């Protein structure tokens, strides 16, 4: 029997309670793991994504959310820079990173600090979906 490593699925899905939702989405990422990122569980209903965007200014980053899909794009300006590298280990290429979000996940804000882009998320479950106690009379 084959063993399947499902850890890549957990890295890009935030707020899912069931793996079935992610498998049904069929969302794939083919960006080769650039830029690196972390997904942090702050508390039961709050998450934080940290993306390493060294070399990008705020105006070169674009964050959009549409239909439970969070997209982060980084694009440098079209100004060519002539540099003579002896060694280039810092990637400066444009990127697009997508995250599939579960229902009821809301983006609370984003900030750029020390080369890391932080995106704060929160799960907000409507009152109608929360369990409620029924009194017996």
Automatic annotation (TrEMBL):
Domain SHSP: 28-137
SUPFAM superfamilies: HSP20-like chaperones (SSF49764)
InterPro entries according to UniProt: A-crystallin/Hsp20_dom, ACD_IbpA/B, HSP20-like_chaperone, HSP20_IbpA
GO cellular component: cytoplasm
PROSITE patterns given in the database record: SHSP (PS01031)
Pfam family, one: HSP20
GO annotation terms (biological process): protein stabilization
Domain of life: Bacteria
Location(s), subcellular: Cytoplasm
Keyword field: Chaperone, Cytoplasm, Stress response
Record's subunit section: Monomer. Forms homomultimers of about 100-150 subunits at optimal growth temperatures. Conformation changes to monomers at high temperatures or high ionic concentrations.
Function summary: Associates with aggregated proteins, together with IbpB, to stabilize and protect them from irreversible denaturation and extensive proteolysis during heat shock and oxidative stress. Aggregated proteins bound to the IbpAB complex are more efficiently refolded and reactivated by the ATP-dependent chaperone systems ClpB and DnaK/DnaJ/GrpE. Its activity is ATP-independent.
PANTHER family linked: PTHR47062, SMALL HEAT SHOCK PROTEIN IBPA
Protein family: Belongs to the small heat shock protein (HSP20) family.
Protein name: Small heat shock protein IbpA
Organism taxonomic ancestry: Bacteria, Pseudomonadati, Pseudomonadota, Gammaproteobacteria, Enterobacterales
